[in-house]
Every structure is written in C-alpha cells, then in structure tokens.
Write a structure and sequence with these properties.
The structure holds two protein chains of two kinds.
Chain A: E1 5-11, H1 23-38, E2 47-51, H2 64-67, E3 78-81, H3 87-100, E4 106-114, H4 120-124, H5 137-153, H6 159-171, H7 186-191, E5 194-196, E6 199-200, E7 209-217, E8 227-236, H8 250-263, E9 272-274, H9 282-289, H10 296-301, H11 325-341, E10 354-361, E11 366-373
Parallel strand pairs in A: 2-3, 2-4, 9-10
Antiparallel strand pairs in A: 1-7, 1-8, 4-7, 5-6, 8-11, 10-11
Helix pairs in contact in A: 3-11
Chain B: E1 6-13, H1 25-40, E2 49-53, H2 56-59, H3 64-69, E3 80-83, H4 87-98, E4 105-113, H5 119-125, H6 139-152, H7 158-174, H8 186-191, E5 194-196, E6 199-200, E7 209-218, E8 224-232, H9 246-255, E9 264-266, H10 272-281, E10 289-290, H11 295-298, H12 305-318, E11 324-331, E12 337-344
Parallel strand pairs in B: 2-3, 2-4, 9-10, 9-11
Antiparallel strand pairs in B: 1-7, 4-7, 5-6, 8-12, 11-12
Helix pairs in contact in B: 4-12, 6-10, 7-10
The chains are: A alpha/beta, B alpha/beta.
Chain lengths: 377, 346
C-alpha cells in the first residue's frame, strides 16, 4: 500500500442559498481552493472523484457528466460515489484508494450539495409499496431511535440541548460555517419548536449549499504539513431485519474497530474527532458506538467533548452548523485532516496529531471513517 | 507499481426483459449475486469487498441501492460501496480496492429498469441543467446529431448503420439473455421513417430491465483483467469533436488495447453510430468480432449494460475459447464517458 497524504483542502462558505454560483461554480470554488492550498493546478491532477447524496436532491442524474469541465476532468478518469449520508466520507475513501493502490499519483475529490436548488424533504419523504414509510424526512426516521437511546440509557433530556449549544459555539470559530448563532443559549434551544419529538428545531442540522474538496498525493514532498491517511474503513448493513440494533449499529462499531486496528491505535490515542451529528443526540450515541466513551451522555454532561475537554468533538461546529448533505461527510474528514495539519485556525485543537473523521448514512447502516495523522504511517 | 492479477471468476445476469414486473431491487440483486458466486465456486463469506452501480432515476426513487443491499445478505456487516453509475465503474472501484492486498475477492453488481419511466426524459435531466436541459433535447437526439456528423464525415453510410443494427439484432436473437426483436431486411430498415434524423428506431438500443453480477478474484484462474481504464470527455456537444470518441480512445490506450491482438470486443453502443466511432477509437480491425452478444442494441439495461459487456467478454474467453477480448462501457450522450477493460486468457 502506498502511503497517502492529504496535501490540499478547500471548502466553500456554507449557506442556506449560494445564489451567486451555479453547481459547477460551487464545486469549482472548492476545487480551486484545494488546488491553491496544495500549490497545484488542474494539470497536476490524474483523476477526479465526486460524491453527493441522491440525484433527486438537485434533479440532475449522473451529475459527473456536466461537472467534468468545471473540475478539470476532461480527458481524465472521473467517478461518482453515492453511499447515502456517508457519501462524503466514502468519496474521500475511494479517492484516497486511487492513490494508495498505486493507480494514480494525485487525485482530486469533491463532494457537494446545493440544497437551495432542491427539496431534500421531498426526496426523503416518498412512499413505496410494501415498505415502511419514511414519511417525514431524516428527522422522522431518526427520532424513534433517539428515544430508544434515551430510554435504554436513562439519559437526562437536556443532553441533546447541551450538544446543540456546544456545536454552535464551536461554529463561531469556523468562518465557513452556515450557522453563526452567538446568542444561542440552552433556554433558546429548549424553547425552539419540537419538530420530531425529541428533536427540536435548534437540535437539528440546517439545509446548506456547499462543497468540500481534497487533494491526495503519494508524494507529500513540498507540502509543509501533509495529513497522512493512517486507516480508512467502510461498513454497511441491511436496513431491515429483526434484531438489528439501530441505536448502536454493528456496522459502525465494526468500522471503528477496523480503523483503530489498521492505524495501530486505541480510541484514547485520538486528539480530536469530527463525527457526523445531524441531530444533537447523535453525539452521545456515536461516542458509544465508536468506542470513544462508555457512556456517551455522561461524557457530554461532563464536558469531555468541548474544545477544552478530554476529546473535543466537532470543533468545526459539525453537521449541526453546516449541512450540504452530500458534502457533510467529507467536511468531517477534511476538518480532521485540518486538525492534524495544524491548519484549523481558531478552531484548532492544540497539538492535535491523530484525528478521526466519521460519516454515516441510510438508516444508520452505511459507515465510512478514517484516521489521519501528522506523522507518516 | 505492478498490479495484483485480478480475474473474472464468476458472472451471472438475469435475462434482460423489456418489462420485468417479477423482481424488485432486492430480488434482482439476490438472484444475480448468488448466481455469480455459484459460477465462481465461492460463497458469500469469501467476499471481501462489495460494490454496486445503480441509478435512482431509473428505479423511480431516491436511495434505490439501499433496499438492494437487503438482497445480498450484508450481515455481519460488510465492506461495501456504491457508484451512481453503470456498474462497470463499480467493477473499476472493486478492482482498485483489490490492489491493496488485504482482500482477494470482490462482488460487483448492477441493477436497473428502463420500463418504469420515460427514458428520454431521464436523459434530458442528465444534461447540464442551466444550458442544455432547458432546450428539451435528449441523449437520443444528441446521438442523432453525432450520427449526422459521422455520415457527413464519410465514416459510414446509412446502409452501414442499418447493417450494424441488423447484425446486432440478429446476434441478440441468438442470445438467450436478450429479448427477441423483429429482423427486417436492410432495405426495409432504410425505408423506415427517421426517429431523429438520420437515426431510425432500429439504430437505437433495445431498452430492458435486469441485473448482473461479477465476482472478481485475485489469482485463481479465469480471464485476467490486463488493463482497465476510463476517461470522461467534455459535456457540451459543441465543445468536442463528435466524430472522434476521444475519451474512449484515451481509455483504450491506458488499458493497453492498442498493443494487443483482440479476438472480440463487446461494445456498449446505444446507437449504431457509436459502434462506428468505437471501432475507430479502439483501433479494432476486421479480425475482431464486434459485440457477439448483440450488445446494447439487442438489450440495454440501465446501469447494468456496461457490466454485462465485461461479463460477456469474459465468457468469450471462459466458454468461447478466445484468447483476448475487450469490453467497453459508456455513459452520457454521444459517448461522453467511456470505460475500457482488456481481458486475457490465463
């Protein structure tokens, strides 16, 4: 396996509506930022891998076809990955594998969503014969799973509120974040409308436009602060069968165990983690699933996941502060890489050397993760 | 870096039907993946990586691949990925994954139904939503523009195109996995009205429903993937030459097709004019049999056809005694995006 590094990262500003750019303009903005960060241009890139959530979100099937030009891919290999909500992470994994397999030297990957040109709630709320309806978007699907977690663990009902406030405070340090809510308090979160009990409006992610790009290279010479890929993992399990634990999915636990093993670390070695938390309660749930805390809600209640806690979670503000769906997973991976590069600006965790990036999708059934480090593996 | 030797160990497809109302996603996938594994003499537990290709617009629902996963028995959880593309690109991802050395068997599948929706309308949506789609044009109309350019450039005549259609449909009628089509004489075909001038109905693919699966294995014999590459071209039909399938040629060169004697090529040509261009781009001579299965003109299942070409090309080696074959897959209008796989007997 060829040692592979992230040598360039680019993100757009995330916003409810980026009316100033088309979809090609949006992905190109992220790609050009990543190329500038790496000191490269499109002619240095061997292949392009893009990812996004369902095509019905923007109404353009096979968008790689019309985005090829904007991403400098003409005459090159180009692929499009789609693994539901985990797609941003999966896309990064697939792109990194093009380098680690020895297939290509330098690969550009971009994930995006332009939710303002779409209606994700519509695309997520269709009904099909013979299948249980997921009739009220992602929140409607995940709310009962959160209730199961609360009942199973006896967690106090303000844990989600604490996460919602913490992530939005972190987002104030992230100039790209969609939501900047300096006056947010626990009281305001509690008073916000209940959307899908127990998920309140301010405990849910926003709908964002945005794109995130990374450049992978087998040769980090000339890059003063590469983020080395220490391990990648993808795991999936079926959506429907008796006995499946949707609160603590086996695929997530297996995927986490595989990346810790492949990186030769234990979870306690991590300095920071960017995990996919679209609804506030998913922070404590994933902390347990990922082996980062025995009791996720106690870790939250004890402040262990704040910027000055034992293991800062989502210094970027997370999905709760920016959610261009197809890009949200890649943003987690890229923010993890920024941390170990020491390039995370005001949201930098001091001395971060090992970081986890995590994404999930479908009915808590698709998982992609990576461990990145400041040292060459 | 030398590539690990990856072989096509097993292949299965459902007969491609004009309408398949019998099988939904999970069933399409269960039957074909089980068939491919049986063909390879392997079991589900031997698979180290699974990758699939499908397209929500053909299945009429977002996340169509999610329910398909229920058909492969993904428990305990599996290493798995998906491309929203023809499954030939899923095979590419699986081939890359196998190069890492930690897994040796990959399962690739694709499924699709053309009967559920309006294929021309879907192809319109695949075009640039700002500058092309609003014009109301479709892939078949852009393919017709390309065919006109092919005729004007003297690369073929309308009779040549009709002969390609007749040869592919005749081959398809011999292929138990392709639906039967009416065979007319070349004269009758040329007398038919044009659908989009200069192309007539017979010049286009026979749209079908179905699924296919391939098992890839490192070592173990069977046709070896000697070269595998894909390239994309510019999207706007006006910004590239329509009389040269440039990205197909680039992919063929990268796959090593130009350096090899090719016994047969399975081409994903959804218009007769595509075959004319692909023969030139892949530099296929008269000694190369073209699409013995009938190709996409005989049966074209969306997101599956490219993978079927690879399976059929492998079968020509496994069961047809051939030494070296090429498979081709394409996406987009007028051969915008092309994948080429060179297979060789071991």
């Amino acid at each position: 396996m060829i040692p592979t590094a992230v040598i360039g990262i680019g993100q757009t500003r995330y916003a409810a509506k980026r009316g100033d750019v088309s979809m090609p303009g949006l992905v190109r903005e992220a790609a050009l930022a990543a190329l500038a960060d790496a000191g490269l241009d499109f002619s240095d890139i061997d292949a392009v891998v893009i990812g996004k959530a369902p095509d019905m979100f923007e109404g353009v099937p096979n968008p790689e076809l019309f985005l090829a030009g904007a991403l400098g891919a003409v005459g090159k290999p180009m692929m499009r990955v789609h693994t539901a909500g985990s797609v941003g992470g999966s896309t990064a994994v697939v792109a990194s594998h093009l380098v680690s397999s020895g297939t290509h030297k330098r690969v550009l990957t971009v994930a995006y969503e332009k939710q303002s040109e779409s209606n994700a709630m519509w695309a997520l709320s269709q009904r099909f014969p013979f299948q249980p309806p997921v009739a009220a978007g992602a929140g409607g699907y995940f709310a009962p799973i959160i209730r199961a977690y609360m009942r199973r663990t006896g967690a106090p009902d303000d844990i989600g509120i604490q996460v919602a406030v913490k992530d939005r405070r972190n987002a104030l340090n992230n100039p790209n974040a969609h939501l900047h809510l300096p006056d947010l308090t626990a009281e305001k979160v509690r008073a916000s409308p209940m959307l899908w009990e127990p998920i309140r409006y301010l405990e849910a992610c926003p709908s964002s436009d945005g794109a995130c790009a990374m450049i992978f290279s087998a040769d980090a010479a000339g890059c003063k602060n590469p983020a080395w890929v220490h391990a990648t993992g993808m795991r999936s399990e079926p959506m429907l069968f008796a006995g499946r634990d949707e609160v603590n999915p086996q695929a997530g636990a297996d995927c986490a165990a595989s990346v810790y093993k492949d990186a030769g670390i234990s979870p306690s070695d991590l300095d920071v983690a960017e995990i996919y938390v679209p609804f506030s309660w998913y922070e404590p749930m994933w902390l347990e699933n990922l082996g980062l805390a025995e009791s996720g809600w106690r870790a939250v209640a004890n402040g262990e996941t704040t910027m000055d806690g034992r293991l800062p979670i989502n210094p970027s503000g997370g999905v709760l502060s920016s959610n261009p769906i197809g890009a949200s997973g890649m943003i987690r991976f890229a923010e993890a890489a920024l941390q170990v590069r020491g390039a995370a600006g005001k949201r930098q965790v001091d001395g971060a050397r090992l970081a986890l990036g995590h994404a999930y999708g479908g009915g808590s059934q698709f998982f992609s993760m990576w461990i990145v480090g400041s040292e060459r593996p | 870096m030398a590539h690990r030797p990856v072989h096509v160990a097993g292949f299965a497809q459902l007969p491609h039907a004009r309408i398949n109302t019998t099988h939904e996603e999970a069933e399409l996938v269960r039957i074909t993946t089980a068939g491919a594994l049986a063909d390879a003499g392997l079991g589900r537990k031997d698979v180290g990586f699974t990758c699939s290709g499908s397209n929500d617009y053909y299945m009429g629902r977002p996340f169509s691949f999610v329910m398909a996963l229920d058909g492969i028995g993904a428990w305990p959880p599996i290493r798995e990925s998906h491309v929203e593309m023809d499954a030939a690109w899923a095979l590419y991802e699986a081939w890359v994954r196998l190069q890492h050395g930690d897994v040796d068997v990959a399962l690739v599948y694709g499924f699709g139904k053309s009967s559920l929706g309006d294929n021309d309308a879907i192809s319109n949506l695949m075009l640039d939503p700002y500058f092309l789609a609003p014009l109301g044009i479709t892939h078949r109309q852009i393919d017709a523009m390309q065919a006109r350019a092919v005729l004007d450039a003297g690369l073929a005549t309308e009779a040549d195109l009709a002969a390609i259609a007749r040869r592919c449909r005749a081959a398809g009628n011999e292929n138990p996995n392709a639906p039967d089509t009416d065979l007319s004489s070349i004269e009758e075909m040329l007398a038919a009205p044009a659908t989009a001038p200069p192309l007539r109905a017979h010049d286009y693919a026979t749209r079908t429903d179905g699924a296919a699966a391939i098992v890839l294995r490192v070592g173990g014999g069977g046709p070896r993937i000697r070269g595998l590459a894909h390239r994309i071209d510019a999207h706007q039909p006006g910004s590239r030459s329509l009389t040269a399938a440039r990205s197909a040629a680039l992919a063929a060169e990268a796959a090593g097709v130009f350096d090899a004697e090719i016994d047969a090529a399975e081409l994903y040509a959804t218009a007769t004019s595509h075959e004319v261009l692909l023969r030139r781009a892949l530099r296929l001579g008269d000694g190369t049999a073209i699409s013995p299965s009938g190709g996409a003109l005989a049966a074209d299942t969306p997101m599956v056809s490219g993978l079927v070409r690879i399976g059929e090309a492998a079968n020509l080696i496994r069961h047809g005694g051939m030494r070296r074959t090429v498979a081709h897959a394409a996406q987009g209008a007028a051969l915008q995006h092309n994948l080429v796989c060179l297979l060789e007997a071991t």
